[in-house]
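Changelog excerpt

This revision adds worked examples to the README so contributors can see how folded entries look when concatenated. The first example is reproduced verbatim below.
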Amino acid sequence: MEQVKVVLRDDEIPRRWYNIQADLPTPMSPPLHPGTGQPVKPEDLAPVFPMNLIEQEASSERWIDIPEPVLQKYALWRPTPLCRARNFEKLLDAPVKIYYKNEGYSPAGSHKPNTAIPQAYYNKEFGIKRLSTETGAGQWGSALSMACQMFGLECRVFMVRVSYEQKPYRRMMMNVWGAECIPSPSVRTAAGRKVLEEHPDSPGSLGIAISEAVEDAVTGKDARYSLGSVLNHVLLHQTVIGLEAKKQFEKIGEYPDVVLGCAGGGSNFAGISLPFVMDRIHGKQVRIVGAEPSSCPTLTRGPFGYDHGDLACMTPLLPMYTLGHDFVPAPIHAGGLRYHGMAPIVSHLLKENLIEARSYNQLETFDAGVKWARTEGFIPAPETTHAIAAVVEEAQRAKEEGKERTILFNWSGHGLVDLASYDAYLTGKLSQYELPEEEIERAKRTISRYPRL
């Protein structure tokens, strides 16, 4: 029988996270205080995050130990299998081997618990009793709700309104795990009320939901904010994905020519890719590609500069590719990956030409997702289909060039509660939406008021 899965033992779960800041050829620009414009100090972040996570955010150590209680929770689903997509290979009929890291094995169905678990743990250790967060399609809100329940914390989730209405089952998952889920913008915060006064029918955005969650955290007793993407410590926790994948490739004596992942805020793309970026920095020939939606083309069309992570400008100014903190995705956009900015680490890597970025419209991503489901069986999350569309493009390129290629991508979650989006695609209700050029010009104007990089 041909090998389909490469499996690690439980005791082979990585015991340390990898911090790429130790290996960057050029250092990243620092985040700036939203009030003073000066580099952020640890004490500036103390009302928002516990100090043990702030230390990870600013760390330049290459390896950071994973606490034993976090490893015990990881062991519920980790290590995840490295799988060979042989049926999809046959469909594409190209000289490629396609491997994927199946992060849909987690209890929440996505890669998000890789950071939700440690964030809940570190907050609990710091004496925090409640976490407040935002979520778009719901993967992050679900994961943090589960993690908070595991460590005895309360959880409050502000969910982007359009997703709250389109994806009720993720809200139900949060409720099952004991969390309170609130459609955003809401009347619960000053930031939400301000938006509703100006735009009563606002579909919401992650920028708005972040403002609400941060405000809720800093004004609450024994509460802190938790973020599922973008920041350094979040990407750090996700590197368990790529570290496991490297071990699995060693077991079969192979190494990928190209590593792919979908890119929204940057967490799952960074999780699969950063350990391979380390190899690239040290001379290994490997290409690394982030796939994003053409309706939210942060990496491929957004300007690079300082911008806020939220609409109300409560967060620090981050050096990143951005569509502007006032960006609101079109409601027609069904594929997830809706955040206006990109993780500073991922942005820095693109700026330094250590990674590539491509965008795909939602018709080609859902087409790739349906083809995957009809060959490999698993129904991918709409976000994951962007990576699969990139796999299809890589396979076609290999076929045209007549070159064999080994492809690795992050299968970052299942789409079993995203079937309404698939239904919209299958019934012809989706369009090939591209972000208008005037939106890019608006983004440039938005960041022009901030310090230049």
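The second example, added in the same revision:
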Amino acid sequence: MKKLIVGLGVLGWLAALALQAADKKIVFIAGTPSHGPGEHEHRAGCLLFQTCLQNTPGLTTVVYSNGWPADPQAFANAATIVVYADGGGGHPLLQGDHLKTIGALMDQGVGLVCLHYATEPTMEKGEREFLKWIGGAFEINWSVNPHWDAHFQSLPEHPVARGVKPFHILDEWYFNMRFRDGMTGVTPLLSAVPDGSTTNRHDGPHEGNPAMRAMVARGDLQHVAWAAERAGGGRGFGFTGGHFHKNWANDHMRKLVLNAILWTAHVEVPAGGVDSHPTPAQLAANQDEKGPRRPPAPPRAPGAPAPVRR
């Protein structure tokens, strides 16, 4: 009898291991503290998404704070990688040989989600890869980063859009993004027409340029969130909002991102999308310790170049 009990215990343990191995692993990379209180709350945002997904069967989630994980096994068996961090030259995927590491995972069909500033590589390093992996990227002197109230009046039929209703919200919605030629394999998910306030800044690498001013004047629809499919079955998702942490309280904005995390991991998105109900306390939790909000920039002479303030 003792042998039987031990045997059943081992079998149960093996079954638990097999079940755990079958889970889809979601790896979150939360960038270092950035901006003022309530802005670019990378760690708090990733931990919030982890909480919202905790009751989704078949998932294992892990959050790594302060950029690229020190654990060499961080990406072992990952189904998708979510990056919520500052971009440009400081992007965690652009440091050292990280692009090569991520590229090998992309070749294996691992998904990739880039949120807000993390959609911006550099033209010299990363843009070609980002277009391949997630279908689009912020390109300096072309894309822009104004704060505006984007009205999303309709969404397409797509698993990432399940249960997401039209909504509007004020955020730092980047637009005039660089996409794959012909939008091949790219499905716009959130699109809106920027208002005239988005052209109030001088020209600059992130602030404005003649091309975007012409687009706004024409009333061109701008894509600020999208899904992409890669050859071989890999999936990517880009989302340019997420500057203000408080905006994750919006059920539709939050649901779109949660759906995208599942979709890029090849997990079936529920018919009504991911259902989550974070409490005010959960939304307020885990924000970075930061100093006072930075003061506004001093006035500039007409025609002077705009400073880069991300």
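Reviewer comment on example two: Confidence is low (pLDDT under 50) at residues 1-8, 11-20, 299-310. The longest strand covers residues 222-229.
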